Amino acid sequence: MTTEQTSANGVSIAYEDKGPRDAPVILLVMGLGGQLTLWPDEFVDALNAHGFRTIRYDNRDVGLSTRFETAGVPNLKWMFVKAAIGLPVRPAYTLADMAADGTALLDHLGIKRAHVVGASMGGMISQHIAARYPDRVLSLTSIMSTTGNRRLPRANREAMQVLANRPMSGDKEDMIAYSVRAARVIGSPGYPATEERLQRRVRSDFERGWYPQGVARQMAAIVADGDRRAMLKDIKAPTLVIHGEADPLVPIAGGRDTAANIAGARLLTIPGMGHDLPLALVDTLADAIAEHARSVTVAA
C-alpha cells in the first residue's frame, strides 16, 4: 500500500487509503508518537475483509506529516508541574487542531461521514471529532483512551518512566532499543509480541519517520486539553469503548470513565490486553469494531 500526501487544515498529512471506494469508511486515528503503521496491517486487512474502506494517517508532528520544528521542544516536567497547580499550558497546537486535521482529510477524500476509531491519544482526538463534527461521524470507537479526569488512576511507575525518558538523540540503535523496551513495558502481558516481529516493526518505523521531538509537543497538547467529560456528554454518535484490563499506561478506569460519560456507550474490556494492538487480538478487535459499525443504520 502506497502512502499518499495531501494538504489538509494547513498541514501536510500522510495517509493510506485501502478498500473499495464505495464501501463505508473507517477513519483510524493513532496515538502519541505513533505513525499510521502502528495500526497493524493484519488489523487493517481484517477491517477490509469485513467490507470497510480504511483510512489511516500520520497525525501532525509524527511520521511523514508536517513537523512543527520551529515551535521548539517543551519542557515536559515543568509542563506537568504547571498543569498540577492549575497554571495554563500553552501547546504548539491542540487536540482540537488535530481533530480538524482528521476531518480535513475526509474532506480531501470526498468522504461525508465515517466511522471514527481512535487509539490512546487517537481516542482523545476521535472524541473531539465526534463532539465537534457530529454530522461527520457515523460511529465512534475509543480504544485504550480516557477522559482527562485528573481523579483517575495514573499510569504505573514503570510505564511513566519509560514514557518520560524517551531519547532525543539521533543514535539509531539507542532509539530502537528504547522503542523495543517501551513496547514491552506498556504492551499486553497476555499477548506478548515475538522479539522478531517487534524488532522488525520498530526498525521499519525508525526508517520511515522517527521524530521524538514531535512526541513532546503532542504530549503538551494532551496535558493542555484537560478534562473532556463535559464535552463527551455532547457526543451523540453510537459509541464503543474498548480497553485492556491489563493496561499499565492508561489504566482500565480511563475506559470505564469514557463509557460512563458518553450516553449509550458500550464498554468492552479484554483480559490480558495492555496498551497496544497485539497480533493475537486483531480479529477480536476488528470483529467488535465491524459489528459496532454495522449496527449503525444511517447510510454514509
Structural notes for this entry:
The chain has 300 residues and is an alpha/beta fold. It has one domain: Alpha/Beta hydrolase fold, catalytic domain (Rossmann fold, 3-Layer(aba) Sandwich), CATH 3.40.50.1820. 41% of the residues lie in helices and 16% in strands. It is built from 11 helices and 8 strands. It has helices at residues 41-49, 76-84, 95-108, 121-132, 157-164, 172-186, 195-209, 212-225, 229-232, 252-260, 282-294, and strands spanning 4-8, 11-18, 25-29, 53-57, 114-119, 137-143, 239-244, 266-270. It has an 8-stranded mixed β-sheet, sandwiched between helices. α3 crosses α4 (121-132) and α5 runs antiparallel to α6. It starts with a strand and ends in a 6-residue tail after the last helix. The mean pLDDT is 93.
What's this entry about, in short?
The chain is of the alpha/beta class. It has eleven helices and eight strands.
Question: Key terms for this structure?
Answer:
41% helix; Rossmann fold; alpha/beta; 300 residues; eight-stranded mixed sheet; single chain; 11 helices
Question: What is the fold's blueprint, element by element?
Answer:
Blueprint (H helix, E strand, L loop, with lengths): L3 E5 L2 E8 L6 E5 L11 H9 L3 E5 L18 H9 L10 H14 L5 E6 L1 H12 L4 E7 L13 H8 L7 H15 L8 H15 L2 H14 L3 H4 L6 E6 L7 H9 L5 E5 L11 H13 L6
Parallel strand pairs: 3-4, 3-5, 5-6, 6-7, 7-8
Antiparallel strand pairs: 1-2, 2-4
Helix pairs in contact: 1-11, 2-8, 3-4, 5-6, 6-7
